[in-house]
Amino acid sequence: MDKDEFLLKRIRELANLSYQRDIVTFTDFLNLNEQNMLASLKLHQMGVEVKLFGGYEHAERQMAAFFPGGLGFSWDYPIDCLKIEPKALRFSEELGHRDYLGALLNLGVDRSVVGDILIKDKEAWFFCLHKMSDFFIENLIRVKHTTVLVSRVEQAEEIPEPEFEMINGTCASVRLDALIGLAFQTSRSSMVSFIESGLVFVNGKLITSNGYEPKEGDIISVRSKGRFIYDGVSRQTKKGRLGVRIRKYV
Hints:
The radius of gyration is 20 Å and the shape is globular. It has six helices and 14 strands. The protein has helices spanning 3-21, 32-40, 97-105, 133-139, 176-183, 188-196, and strands at 25-30, 48-53, 62-68, 79-86, 114-120, 123-129, 142-143, 146-152, 164-171, 200-202, 205-206, 219-222, 226-236, 242-249. The strands form three sheets. A six-stranded antiparallel sheet has the order 9-14-13-12-10-11, sandwiched between helices. Strands 5-6-4-8-7 form a five-stranded antiparallel sheet. Helices cover 24% and strands 34% of the residues. By secondary structure, it is an alpha+beta fold.
């Protein structure tokens, strides 16, 4: 059984357990491809509903909750947000997403127990399974050469809003390959292979057609590249090209 087959089997088991015992069950954090696989299953035919959440609005990595229709009690996702800050600010390095993720995975945990990582200045916030919080607080003491402290975030207001780089440019038409090329400052043709290889998602849905036309407000994610929000057409040039606006997550 390969990894995808095992995930689908596990999802069906969780859905069935929710229905049989009238309880809420949860997956670990799912990446975009796994979320797309989940969406392909018709779990409503099993008598359960599905909701996704990653700890904050528009999270990329999300946890699926399965619950029977008409459930008579409220519930929360078993997700915690932890803050990483340098122990001595003056001696801290400039750290990126890869540095923080590498430090977490070097503790021997699976990627599925960690959700999104948000970075602002020299601090980071990351989402994890509730059952893993104490482990990370006790064991994550260094990111690269920077000694860090990890604490639990108690108030949602403490979590920073995502930051964006504003990008304005022109394209002949609002096609997926053109927008991706503009967002990541590369040629449209070089992005075709990403799309055809199943690495591009629009609002969490896998898209494999480079001619797909996103709608204003769509969130476009490219694995290994990043993600951005398409903000629509702002103008038309004298040569008939379309001026478009993009907000790329940083």
